[in-house]
Design goal:
With 62 residues, the protein is α+β, with helices and mostly antiparallel strands. Helices cover 35% and strands 32% of the residues. The protein is built from 1 helix and 3 strands; from the N terminus they run βββα. A 3-stranded antiparallel beta sheet has the order 1-2-3. Strand 1 and strand 2 form a beta hairpin. The longest helix is centred in the last third of the chain and has 22 residues. It is flat.
């Protein structure tokens, strides 16, 4: 499965700080739980990538 492949899988995404000073992205789908912890700097880099992808996707819609 690639980035452009559609899927019928529903997933829940939670994002928040941990008590260890990390930023956690927590994905749950079909009984599988995936916690991913990032440093604040890594989380900011990920946020910038998401923002860039959103801008690119918006430009393609127009």
């Amino acid at each position: 499965m690639g980035i452009n492949s559609e899927s019928d899988i529903e997933a829940n995404l939670q994002i928040g700080p941990t008590d260890q000073g990390m930023v956690r992205l927590y994905v749950e789908a079909r009984g599988v739980e995936i916690p991913m912890d990032f440093t604040p700097d890594e989380a900011r880099d990920i946020a910038a990538e998401i923002e860039a992808a959103a801008k690119s996707a918006s430009a393609r819609k127009s």
